[in-house]
Amino acid sequence: MQTGHPIFWILVAAVLAPLLAAIPRRFKVPVVVLEVLLGILIGPQVLGLVQFEGSVTFIYVIGRAMTLFMAGMELDLSGMKGRPISLAVGGWGFSALLGICVIGLLHVIPQVHAPMMVTLALCTTGLGTLLPIFRDSGQLSTPFGRMLMAAGTLGEVGPIVAMSLLLSQQYSTWQEIGFLLAFLAIVGGAILVGMGAHPSRPAAFLSKHMHTSTQLPVRVSLLMLAALLVLSEDFGFESIFGAFAAGLIVGQFTRGEAGKAFREKIDAVSFGWFYPFFFVGTGIKFDVAALGQSLTTMLVVPAFMLLFLVIRGAPAFLYRNDITKAQFLPFALASAVPSLSIIVVITDIGVKAKTMNPDIATAMIGAALLCIMVFPTITGMLLSRQAVSSDPPTRL
Fold this sequence. Notes:
Blueprint: H1 6-21, H2 31-42, H3 55-74, H4 77-80, H5 83-102, H6 115-122, H7 127-137, H8 143-167, H9 173-195, H10 201-208, H11 216-234, H12 239-253, H13 260-285, H14 295-313, H15 325-335, H16 340-352, H17 358-385
Helix pairs in contact: 1-2, 1-13, 2-13, 3-7, 3-12, 3-13, 5-8, 5-14, 6-16, 7-8, 8-9, 8-15, 9-12, 11-12, 14-17, 15-17, 16-17
């Protein structure tokens, strides 16, 4: 059944998801998980109310960029300095090495011909997925939250940078490295300016338009997003790299009480409109039937789930002196939540380049979806049962 009103049905799912999440139950299912499930329900695989085409595809791509933009905005770089960021770098490096070692096990499956791409996908952390969950639970401003956000940042940035360098065919490797350094210099300079920014005439000018019909500060931030999307693509990188960098820049300029009004507005735009289109659209796009078409796909799905948990969850042991015993399992599970947007990009590239079998790509996306449904839900249950302790860390 095709109704011809895809936007309407996506918005129905967007409204139903938080209402269903608010129903009292023993454990709370994250809203983003319900949005994906409702997307599957209204998609072509079940009810057939919405097809992944036309305007749905267009807004989905923008929504994907906005999830990375908001993830960058929420990062407080000053709060991540020192041990949180050093542990995050060490943890992601450990995941990458572990992934390279473990991925050899998949060579027994004839269809897997892209070990580096699979490794990058397994080393991701879905900061955009975790962000609304930890915002709603009030964990972002806690030491535990800052540690996790730092780990999630590397789980987003590390694969994006590596993917931009390894998978781009637009320029040579040395040219890509040069463009990467130039891009990082531009972003880093803007971030440093933002971190040291003080009230000025431009800021005062923008504040005058905060509550007018022009909404100039919101338009300027979206222009920054568009500019870095274009710049990253021109440099041969994936667009999600530019989206994350734009969020970092805008976030540093809007820290503190002065930026509160702006953040409320950008939250309304992002979480109220673009986020549902990405997560509901993910469910619509997902080919559920493909999971059962071959025995290989069915077996690889749980294998990928286990690998997500091991490769990104194992580095939690590096935090044994910085988190409590009660926080260890939630930290490992949250770190193992994969970045669906990056995995979709990697699998799309692999299938188009014919270096990854479509069945394996489907299995990886299916495993990522299951991880997103299961890991945050268990994390929320554990954190709700045992409030994050403010006592000194307990050695494991």
